[in-house]
């Protein structure tokens, strides 16, 4: 029993599974880490996929993930498939939309989530067919398969391990945070999705991305409660910082790498927050296709709709 803190010290035997999970994730991290630099390499040919079009495809994946109410892991796995395929194969931009849908379809199957490929094609308004998506998914699975058969680790996998480690060392979790644990994890996953949608941060290691988001969000929560807490709470803050440092050493993330990653992440998140807080002043208008107008029973019927109050 630690008399200064009034609770039992963590059992080293209980920590072993968490350390094993982290070690296992680190072993396959570099194997599946895509080389996005190859997308904009010197041998680029006209009509090929660029980093800008890649970012647009990932944003489309995020939209479909939200629209279809799929788990976060499906999005992260789909992005992993997409980036690995683009780094290994030369793809024409005209096939990018079909490739994007195929990665999402394959990721949903990998994460045991049901998805209707026909609905997926209709929602995306893609010119490809359901058969094209399924056929492309088979090609993606074949080209991104690792000989050892191990599963790719995503930033969400590392984040889950970090949160489990923090919860293990911090028994008095309610002294650290004031919000629900589920909501905190949800906010972190959303920020990771935003970062992967930008190629300037997507090429960083998954372990580093997750560690910075983990540190930034928990520090933000603790800073709000620090003025009203006792010295005991200050001790919890110091303990958290020491845990972050231990994780950094275990993941072999150099200070320079962490600093560069932090600067770029802060820049992307600042832009994201400014866009999220910007109010749209675009007026809503009725738009009709030619077929809809032609099928109207009487001319001018479509002009009788009332104005929508924003």
UniProtKB/TrEMBL annotation:
It comes from the Eukaryota. InterPro entries: Cyclin, Cyclin-like_sf, Cyclin_N. Coiled coil: none annotated. Pfam families: Cyclin_N. Residues 49-136 form the Cyclin N-terminal domain. This is Cyclin G.
């Amino acid at each position: 029993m630690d008399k200064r803190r009034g609770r039992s010290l963590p059992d080293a035997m209980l920590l072993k599974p968490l350390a094993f999970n982290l070690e296992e994730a680190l072993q396959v991290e570099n194997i599946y880490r895509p080389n996005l630099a190859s997308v904009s390499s010197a041998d680029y040919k006209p009509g090929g996929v660029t980093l800008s079009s890649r970012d647009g495809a990932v944003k489309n994946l995020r939209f479909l993930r939200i629209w279809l109410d799929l788990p976060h892991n499906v999005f992260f796995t789909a992005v992993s498939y997409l980036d690995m395929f683009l780094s290994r194969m030369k793809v024409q931009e005209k096939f990018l939309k079909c490739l994007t849908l195929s990665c999402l379809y394959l990721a949903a199957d990998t994460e045991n989530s049901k998805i209707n490929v026909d609905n997926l094609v209709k929602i995306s308004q893609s010119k490809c067919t359901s058969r094209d998506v399924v056929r492309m998914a088979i090609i993606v699975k074949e080209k991104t398969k690792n000989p050892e058969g191990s599963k790719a680790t995503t930033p969400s996998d590392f984040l889950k391990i970090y949160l489990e480690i923090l919860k293990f060392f911090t028994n008095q979790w309610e002294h650290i945070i004031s919000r629900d644990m589920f909501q905190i994890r949800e906010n972190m996953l959303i920020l990771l999705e935003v970062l992967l949608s930008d190629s300037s941060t997507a090429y960083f290691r998954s372990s580093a991305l997750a560690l910075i988001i983990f540190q930034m969000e928990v520090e933000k929560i603790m800073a709000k409660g620090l003025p009203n807490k006792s010295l005991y709470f200050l001790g919890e803050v110091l303990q958290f910082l020491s845990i972050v440092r231990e994780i950094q050493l275990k993941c072999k993330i150099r200070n320079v790498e962490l600093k560069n990653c932090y600067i770029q992440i802060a820049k992307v998140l600042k832009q994201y927050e400014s866009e999220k807080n910007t109010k749209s002043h675009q007026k809503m208008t009725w738009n009709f296709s030619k077929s809809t107008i032609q099928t109207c029973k009487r001319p001018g019927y479509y002009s009788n709709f009332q104005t929508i109050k924003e």
